[in-house]
């Protein structure tokens, strides 16, 4: 069973997502919530790094956080999946454990 | 499945407590069990019954209290982190209890998953 | 494991707990309060390990002198972790290098692991507590 990682900060502001990507392995899941959702926007500088990671990891974006910030799923890079809180719960249940990159 | 939840930030300053709350609501709606919600670091401030946000804002402390009442949740505030920040029995909102860090470790042992909400 | 050896918590279950430290000391309280979790985890006879990555490696820097900022220097506690049977301390090599630090700059003996090795170790845990 793979591991689910969560990260909650904008990669334009902190390096948490960078560390998360450096210290995780192919096959894991990464859920972007709160300000981390900005990192998955096509328009965001550096989102190509996440698009690259999406090739061998499953990247999820918490939809309610995206909507709250005025963006839509259409504005996200390809290869990411939008989930709601129920989906977040399912992801936690489906993975071996959860690691937060706070 | 049994979930443990760790909340490491206080209300309002960070979204952590809101996210943890939404997660807990969704987990319960799906029929999961919340083994315990543990409040640590500035997260202990979520238990302060003197919390009084403007009327058009959510009352995070009251939300947790209501959820605990509706689902018989075990909500534990770390005694050491609480004392450090003035969170004592006399200002605890309903549903919150003060206990030791051992309750966090216990949650890690007994719950199927422990989810950390911090900043 | 039989119940007779159980510690304070009286637990028969042993899980792999990893405390991940990614923040520097003093600027925020996370490092100090994470250390308190480590000590309790050890008292519960769990398989506890600590990781120091990113600015978390600064927690282990030798020579911390906190008198003039009015905070307690809690760094000697890392040296006492062995007394609590907490012996698995891991530091990420890339984080050390990025900060111009070497293992000799740290106040305790640690195992230095590359990011790939460390990511494998993180996947092998049961409970990860991040501070």
What does it look like?
- The complex is a heterotrimer of chains A (about 100), B (about 120) and C (about 130).
- Chain A is an alpha/beta fold and about 100 residues long.
- Chain A has one domain (about 5-100): Hypothetical Protein Ychn, Chain: A.
- Chain A has helices spanning about 15-20, 45-55, 65-70, 85-95; strands at about 5, 30, 60, 80-85, 100.
- The mean pLDDT of chain A is about 95.
- Chain B has a single domain, classed as 3-Layer(aba) Sandwich (Hypothetical Protein Ychn, Chain: A).
- Chain B starts with a strand and ends with a strand.
- Helix content of chain C is about 25%, strand content about 20%.
- Chain C contains four helices and five strands.
- Chain C has helices at about 30-45, 75-80, 95-100, 115-125, and strands at about 15-20, 45-50, 90, 110-115, 125-130.
- Chain C has a five-stranded parallel sheet with strand order 4-3-2-1-5.
- The longest helix of chain C has 14 residues, at about 30-45.
- Chains in contact: A-B, A-C, B-C.
Terminal-residue CA separation of chain A? 23 Å
On the 0 to 100 scale, the average pLDDT of chain A is 97
Low-confidence stretches of chain A: none
**General shape of chain A:** globular
Which class of secondary structure composition applies to the elements of chain A? alpha/beta
CATH fold field value of chain A? Hypothetical Protein Ychn, Chain: A
**In sequence order, what are the helices and strands of chain B, one letter per element?**
EHEHEHEHE
> In what order do the strands lie side by side in the largest sheet of chain A?
4-3-2-1-5
Radius of gyration of chain B: 13 Å
Q: CATH homologous superfamily name of chain A?
A: DsrEFH-like
Using the coordinates above, name the CATH class of chain B.
Alpha Beta
Reading the helices and strands of chain A in chain order gives EHEHEHEHE
Assign the CATH architecture of chain A: 3-Layer(aba) Sandwich
Number of strands of chain B: 5
Question: What structural keywords apply?
Answer:
heterotrimer; A: 102 residues; alpha/beta; Hypothetical Protein Ychn, Chain: A; 5 strands; globular; B: 119 residues; five-stranded parallel sheet; 4 helices
Brief write-up:
The complex is a heterotrimer of chains A (102), B (119) and C (131). In chain B, 34% of the residues lie in helices and 22% in strands.
């Amino acid at each position: 069973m793979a591991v689910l990682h969560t990260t909650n900060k904008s990669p334009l502001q902190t390096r948490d997502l960078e560390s998360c990507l450096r210290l995780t392995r192919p096959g894991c899941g990464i859920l972007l919530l709160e300000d981390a959702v900005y990192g998955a926007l096509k328009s965001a500088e550096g989102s190509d790094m996440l698009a690259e990671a999406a090739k061998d990891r499953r990247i999820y974006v918490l939809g309610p956080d995206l909507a709250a910030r005025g963006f839509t799923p259409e504005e996200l890079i390809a290869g990411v999946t939008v989930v709601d809180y129920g989906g977040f719960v399912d992801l936690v249940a489906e993975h071996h454990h959860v690691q937060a990159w706070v | 499945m049994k979930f443990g939840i760790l909340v490491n930030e206080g209300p309002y300053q960070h979204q952590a407590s809101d996210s943890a709350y939404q997660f807990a609501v969704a987990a319960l709606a799906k029929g999961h069990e919340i083994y315990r919600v543990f409040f640590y670091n500035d997260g202990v401030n979520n238990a302060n019954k003197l919390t009084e946000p403007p009327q058009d804002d959510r009352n995070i402390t009251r939300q947790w209290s209501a959820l605990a009442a509706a689902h018989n949740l075990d909500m534990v505030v770390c005694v050491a982190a609480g004392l450090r920040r003035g969170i004592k029995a006399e200002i605890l909102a309903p549903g919150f209890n003060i206990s030791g860090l051992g309750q966090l470790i216990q949650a890690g042992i007994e719950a199927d998953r422990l989810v950390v909400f911090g900043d | 494991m039989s119940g007779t050896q159980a510690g304070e918590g009286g637990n028969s279950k042993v899980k792999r707990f990893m405390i991940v430290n990614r923040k520097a000391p003093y600027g925020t309280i996370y490092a100090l309060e994470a250390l308190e979790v480590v000590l309790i985890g050890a008292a519960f006879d769990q398989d506890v390990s600590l990781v120091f990555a990113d600015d978390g490696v600064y927690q282990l820097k030798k020579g911390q002198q906190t008198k003039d900022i009015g905070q307690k220097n809690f760094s000697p506690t890392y040296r006492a972790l062995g007394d609590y049977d907490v012996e698995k301390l891991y530091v990420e090599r890339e984080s050390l290098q990025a900060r111009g630090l070497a293992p000799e700059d740290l106040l305790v003996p640690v195992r230095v692991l590359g990011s790939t090795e460390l990511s494998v170790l993180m996947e092998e845990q049961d409970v990860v507590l991040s501070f």
